[in-house]
Amino acid sequence: MTTATNTVQANSESNVWEGGQAPFGVKYGKLMMWYFLLSDAFTFAAFLISYGAIRYTVGQDIWPEPNKVFEAFPLLGHGYPLLFVSLMTFILILSSVFMVRAVQEGHQMNKKGVILWLGFTIIGGIAFLSCQAWEWAHLIHNGMTMTSPITYEIGGHGSGAVFVGPLAFGQLFFTITGFHGFHVTTGVVINIIVFLNVVFGTYEKKKNYDMVEKVGLYWHFVDLVWVFVFLGFYLL
Predict the structure, then answer these.
(1) pTM (2 d.p.)
(2) Domain holding 131: CATH number?
């Protein structure tokens, strides 16, 4: 009896490690999305590492102070350090929560739920891009471009003390945030296409909402990258 039990247990343990025909059970489309996100993560990592290296080389003493550069808020004017970019971050993170709900509704084959939450996700993405467009326009209007150094007054308007930051700050800021903004724009376009497919019942016919989950992975990745961009440019 003991010998038979040990044999069954040994066979069971062996089967666990053999894996079978599909050890991970990952569908091809989702696996390819993970490969793409991994390669894209290396690109963003290269940008951010370059930013850190240049900032370290230039020196903290002459690097622009985020609380001074990013202190404007639409309709309220100046004097609100990091408030607007905090709102942008909140909008993007909230859109990621909406995407989670869309994926959950897709697992339940709830078409109306997917339409609702995916629609909110798209609105969040458009709102974030609108905020970023305003921020870029404001900074450019105040003299910050990729070909001129950032300048701003120290101690409030009319103080006479002017800080001139390195040219690299504007170049890095517009390049990295622009690259991220391009990803958000791409995500919004893809989400709209998927949204229309949901409305027309494309995934109902296929009896799965796998595409919603795939674009959800991309959207969460874009949100995660923004956390590092926010940390590097706005907080440190």
Answers:
(1) 0.81
(2) 1.20.120.80
